[in-house]
Each structure stands twice: as structure tokens, then as C-alpha cells.
DNA sequence: GATGAATGAGGCTTCATTCAT
DNA sequence: AATGAATGAAGCCTCATTCAT
């Protein structure tokens, strides 16, 4: 993500690839440590240790702690957004219901792979302005916003095809996001051994029809 | 012992009242500062400053930072739980739908009064084990558990009176909680000027019937 | 010690006597707390609590912590010095050996009554300059000096009557003091239930004849 | 692992040597500062300054203030005990008297090298339980105990060869320790410019024969 | 005089960051 | 590029002292 994003050629000399390895190792270690210790509890030394490098090396690859965290967040976000965009692109096939379920499943699978870290990130989305930088809360949490944008796009389609009712529709994206986050949240407070993704159908059913008899 | 000797009327001597005042002031200041700066960003000096006292005074009233935070959480929790219990107790009157809405409204009104702080608390519920104390790591967040317990009790009634369907019912409490938290979450990322409580009917409607047309 | 030292009359009005009571209680409490917690570990609040008064009261009777400690030290010192002077004054009666033993016994009895506190004081005699006040080490520990002065006086008599040999005599006072302090020190590290005073004969015997066969 | 690859000779790589240097510098500085300011008066910042490092560096080498002090105490103790054991081991040569004097001289020479610090340590031996850690309160001061153990061993030999009388023999170790401590104590309250070690013969003479004519 | 809540200077400790090797 | 010891700003907490009641 940092470098080499759209360099036309693709040689990637040895040194670059090794460097890439280290970076990936650091990011992975960082994900674990942030996931375990929380946004503020994670210590650079722990991350270095987990990645099998020295503290100094962290700073050879990332400007500072914030940059490391930001890059990590961005990396995970891009992974998820790419999947979501793929789902949205494959719109032709089936109906809205099917696409909605695929969307939900994509999110939940992402959660399955990054539970602890995402929990930290999603849950502290809005405190990031203060915690990450002292600046104003002006960067309004890109990751969640991007997800919401896609949810909105998806739900608009649902309304167009008449599968969603128009009243209170402006709350539906929030509700869907809430159900997704809630599913993760529940898993964290009371872990099960079924993958979250398996909850997709029930979640969609609830979203479409509620709990009523 | 040596108090209250000849004050015919006043139950609490001045000293005591002042002490209570100070404590309340500290808790209020702490709520603001924690809400603004986050669980780990809040500085004792800021809390003291906001409360109009000196740092030392914080420690005359609370053992340490953790104790202050814990007391604050407990205080807010008790306030909310008392309201919820009142709603649950008034069961006779109307039907399940009405009670559900009152319940939801109670939660949302509590959110309205303590937005920022509750956001911090609710969102970092599961990282509290590490952040608050290194001790009993997995005390699973009493506040949320207590709310969930009451939601479960409420929803059981709903099922008994036949207003909720039985399939996937074990997820409903999570879903309701998610919708509540999501409502708060949305308000924080995109503040409006309508009180959250006014969202109660829409939320209940969605919970009972979903987004489907 | 603070006041009323050499006022010719001796009326001591009621108020004065009550004040005296409180002061004595404070001093006693201070002795206990200093004895238990050490010179620097003793907290004013603990002393107040032990004395059954409030912190403020300590400051009504003593200028500050240092003054309280100093007054306490002086009080105990005067008690001991008075006894020692009495022994020295009763010189006529018996011989040097008997007087030496009385002297030793007087010191050990004083130790018996004030073990913990004296241990603290005696042992930190020379660090008091720094700890008590930031000043130079110019006040060379009056208490020990006063005792040594009397020991020197006593031992001079011993030499005069020919019971002490003259060689290395300048070390004898130090040695006698060391034996006294050592007796207390041993009691503290390995408490027995015989009073220290009962050790007087053995100590004197050792002082006069050593450990040799 | 990756050290010492092509340094034919140097056993310790530079880094390691520097680290050792720093640690020794810190311990030395700590000894001075503790010696000057007392057990509780010594400030980490002063120790750092004296050692020519920053505060943080202290914590790279020692867990906390207590650990630093403890390590320092242990270091000095081991130095002394090694010397004493050497004296005890060289038992064959001369008689008991000679060995006793060597023992005493070893202790006094150690005092000569570490006057101020040892004074602090020895004198506050029994308050260490409270001051050093709130923990295992009554670990009875290993350093003094170890010395006493060796003194006892030595004196047993003296009794076996008939150079010490048996009556009151259980007090002799305490007395010898007292004389040693007293010698240090005297030097501190009234410094001379002769080394304490030169007092060994007089001390032994006194121990064996007392002050009597 | 007694009270005890408030004060705030001062100490310990942590940890992100730097930089010489 | 990697290393890891050194740095020092910043936060928490203690406790002697004050002062309004």
C-alpha cells in the first residue's frame, strides 16, 4: 500500500520483495498486537517482537506508530472494499436478495479473518480522530464511511426493485451496519465455533422481515 | 460520632454536602473528559481542571484512575438499569409492542443524556479487561450483560404472547442491542438535532418487521 | 518541650493540661508509627489516626512533620539522659564495675521501652542531616553525642580507678556504644522474650574481659 | 546468534561491553547517591545524572527503583561475602587469632571502600522490609545474616581451639558484629583519615580481652 | 482548638522515537 | 537495512501542608 502501487512495470527486484516480506510481517504482527492489547495498549516493542524484528526496523518501514496503524487499517480496509465492490459489480446475476446475502457474507467473512483487530477498529472508529492525531475530528472514519456508501448503493437497488419499503428508509443503512457490527460484537463477547459467515442468511432474513411473527 | 449534634433539621452537615458536591462534580467532569478524549486519552489533570479541583482532590475521592472510571461506569449503568427495570415492572398495562417501545425509548433517552461517554464505554466494552485492569481479564462487561439480560427477559414475553417468531430467536437480543448501539453510533458519526429517543418507533418497527416491503 | 519550659510558676491551667494530653498522645502515636513505618514511611495521617485526632490537630501542636519528629526525639533523649545522669551522679556508692552495669542497664531499659522507635532513630542517626532538613550535616546527631559524652566520662573514671587499661582507650567508648546498639539490633532481628536489661551483666563482662578464654 | 562472527579475539562485542559499562556506571552512581541522600532521599533523576545517562536508561537496565537498589545491595554483598569466604577457606595456615584478624580486616576494608552506602544499608537493615517493598515483610536481611553465619562459623573454631570461653558464647557473634558496625559508625560520625582496616588489631584485641586492665 | 477536604509540588515510571554502530 | 541502547516528555500518584468551617 505504501509504495509501488501503480508502477507500470512489475519487476519488483529482490531487495524490494524482501522489504515487502518484512513489511507484511510487521503489519501482521501489528494486527495481532493491536487486536490483543487495544489501540492504545499496543507497544511498538511488542509489535517488533512479534514480527521478529527490532524496534528500529519498524521505523525503517513506517514513519511512526500512527503511520503503521494507519497503513494497517488501510490495508484491511482495501481488502474488504475490494470484495464488496466485487459483490456490487456482479449485480446482473440473481436478484437483490441474493446480492444482499453475498454482501453480508463478504463482510462477515472478513470479520472471521480479522476478528480481534476489526473489533478494536470498528468499535473505536469515532474516537480515532482524538487518539490517532490531535487534530479535529474532520477525517470522519473513512473505513466505515466507505462501507456505508456501498451499503447505501446496495439498498437503493433494493428499493428500486421494490424489495424494500420506502418509509424510514434513511435508517436502513445504519440498521444493516448495526446488525453486522452487532454480529461481530456478539461473537467477541460470547465466542462460538461457527464462522460468522454462516450467520448471513439469518441476518438477511431479519433485515428483511424483522423479528415479528 | 461528633456530627449532627444540634442541627435540628439539616440531615447532611455542610461538610458532607460539599463532599458529595465535589464527588458529583468530579464524576461529571470525568464523563465529559472520557467522552471527549477516550478511555486512554483522558488525563487526570484534565478531569481535575474540568471539575474545578486539583489533582489531589481526585485522589481524595477515588483510589486511582481506574477506580474513578469504574465508579463512573457503575453510576451510569445503575441509572440506566433502574429505568429499564421500571419499564419491565410496568408490564401489566399495554401489550408487548408498547412495552418494547418504552424499553427502547428508555435506552435511547439515556444515550441522549450521555452520548459521548456511552459511546466510548459501549464501544470499548470488550477491551476493558485489558485497559481497565490487568486483573480478572474476562469479566464480560457487566453493563452490556445486564442490558442483554433484560432484553432477553423482554423478548421472551414477546414470544410468549406470540408477537415474535421462534426461529432464530436466539439472535434477536443481539440484533436489538445492535440496533440500539447502531443508533447511537450513527448519531455520533453524523450528528443530527433530533433526540435519539424520537427514533424509538422506527427502530421498533424495523425490529418487528424488518426493511422488507 | 515546645513551650513552658522554664516559666518560674507552675500553675498549668486546665487548658494547658488538656493541651498537654493531646500532645502526649500525638507523640506516643508518632513514636509507634515512626517505629513501624520508618523515618520516611511514617505518614502524618497515620499518626493522626493513631492518636485519635485529625491531621489538622497535628499542625496545631507542631509546626510541621520535622518539628514533630524532632520534639519526639528530644523527648525520648531527655528521658534517657536524665536516667544516665542519675546513674553518673550516684557515683559515690559502689565501685566502677557496679556503676558501669547500672549505666548499661539504664540504656537497655530505655531500649526495652522504646525498641522500634529507637532502632529507627539510632540507626539513621547520621542520615538525619539530609533526611530531616536539606541543610548541611552540621548538627552532628545530638542524642548519640550526648550519650557518648557520658560514656566517656564514665570510662575516664574507670581508667582512673585502674579498672581499664590505657592502650587503645580512645576506642572504648565507641566499643561500648557499639555493644549497646548491637544488643538492640540483635533483639530486633531476632526477638526474644527476655528484656534487654537482663543482658547487662553479660555485656559488662564482655566489655571488661572480652571473649577470650 | 549473529554475534561474534569475525572478531577473532574480542569476546564481548562492542554493544555488550557498552551495555555492561552503562550498568556498572549506574550502580556506581546509585551507590553514591544512596550513600549521600539516604535510602528514601535518593532520586532516580539524581542517579541518572550522576551516571551521565537519562532517567529512561535506568529503566532499561533495572526494572524499577527497588530492583536497582536490590541489585546494588546484592552486588556489594557478594563482593564482601566472597572475601570472607576466602578468609575462612585459608584456615590451615596460622592460628585462630590470625584468621580472626584477617576476617575483621576484610570487613573493615570493605567498609573503607563503601563507607557511606554501607552505612545506609547496614543501619537500615531492619527497616528494609517496609521501605524496599511492601512484600514478604520479614525476610530478615540476608546480607547481615550471611555475615553472621560466617562469624558464627569462625567463632566456633575459636571455641574448639580453646581460645574463646564457652559462657555467654551465644552473644559473641552479636558482639563482634556490633564492634564492626560500631567501627564504621564511629568513622561516619567523626571521620578520621586512617583507614578503618588499620583498626583491625585493636578491635580483635578488644574482642578477645575486653577493656579491662 | 479541632476538623478534614483541598492543594500541588515532586517523585516514579512508561514508551514512542532517535541514532550510532 | 537492521539493531537495540539511550532519550526525555508526559502521565499517574503520594502526602505534607493549608484553611474555611
Give the mean pLDDT of chain A: 85
The CATH topology of the largest domain in chain A is given as: Tetracycline Repressor, domain 2
Topology pattern of chain A, helix = H, strand = E: HHHHHHHHH
Low-confidence stretches of chain A: 1-8, 128-139
Characteristics:
homotetramer, 213 residues, mainly alpha, Arc Repressor Mutant, subunit A, Tetracycline Repressor, domain 2, disordered N terminus, DNA-binding
Quick structural gist:
Chain A is mostly helical and 213 residues long. Chain A has helices at residues 14-37, 44-51, 55-61, 65-89, 96-123, 128-132, 142-160, 172-189, 200-209. Mean pLDDT of chain A is 85; it is low at 1-8 and 128-139.
Could you explain the architecture of this structure?
- The structure is a homotetramer of 213-residue chains.
- The first copy, chain A, has 213 residues and is mainly α.
- Chain A folds into two domains: 10-62, Homeodomain-like (Arc Repressor Mutant, subunit A, Orthogonal Bundle); 65-209, Tetracycline Repressor, domain 2.
- The first copy, chain A, contains nine helices and no strands.
- Chain A has helices spanning 14-37, 44-51, 55-61, 65-89, 96-123, 128-132, 142-160, 172-189, 200-209.
- The N and C termini of chain A lie far apart (48 Å).
- Mean pLDDT of chain A is 85; it is low at 1-8 and 128-139.
- At the C-D interface, α5, α7, α8 and α9 of C face α5, α7, α8 and α9 of D.
- The structure holds a DNA duplex (21 and 21 nucleotides).
SSE topology sketch:
Four copies of one chain form a homotetramer.
Chain A: H1 14-37, H2 44-51, H3 55-61, H4 65-89, H5 96-123, H6 128-132, H7 142-160, H8 172-189, H9 200-209
Helix pairs in contact in A: 1-2, 1-4, 1-5, 4-5, 4-7, 5-7, 5-8, 5-9, 7-8
The structure holds a DNA duplex (21 and 21 nucleotides).
Amino acid at each position: 500500500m505504501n509504495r509501488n502501487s501503480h508502477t507500470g512495470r512489475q519487476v519488483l527486484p529482490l531487495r524490494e520483495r524482501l522489504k515487502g516480506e518484512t513489511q507484511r510481517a510487521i503489519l501482521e504482527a501489528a494486527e495481532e498486537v493491536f487486536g490483543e492489547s487495544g489501540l492504545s495498549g499496543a507497544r511498538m516493542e511488542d509489535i517488533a517482537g512479534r514480527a521478529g524484528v527490532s524496534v528500529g526496523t519498524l521505523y525503517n518501514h513506517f514513519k511512526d506508530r500512527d503511520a503503521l496503524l494507519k497503513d494497517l487499517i488501510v490495508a484491511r480496509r482495501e481488502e474488504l472494499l475490494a470484495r464488496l465492490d466485487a459483490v456490487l459489480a456482479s449485480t446482473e446475476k440473481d436478484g437483490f436478495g441474493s446480492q444482499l446475502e453475498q454482501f453480508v457474507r463478504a463482510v462477515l467473512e472478513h470479520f472471521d479473518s480479522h476478528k480481534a483487530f476489526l473489533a478494536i477498529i470498528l468499535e473505536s472508529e469515532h474516537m480515532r480522530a482524538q487518539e490517532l492525531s490531535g487534530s479535529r475530528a474532520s477525517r470522519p472514519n473513512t473505513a466505515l464511511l466507505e462501507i456505508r456508501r456501498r451499503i447505501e448503493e446496495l439498498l437503493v437497488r433494493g428499493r428500486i426493485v421494490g424489495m424494500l419499503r420506502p418509509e424510514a428508509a434513511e435508517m436502513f443503512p445504519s440498521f444493516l451496519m448495526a446488525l453486522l457490527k452487532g454480529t461481530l460484537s456478539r461473537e467477541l463477547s460470547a465466542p462460538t465455533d461457527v464462522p460468522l459467515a454462516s450467520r448471513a442468511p439469518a441476518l438477511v432474513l431479519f433485515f428483511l422481515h424483522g423479528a415479528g411473527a
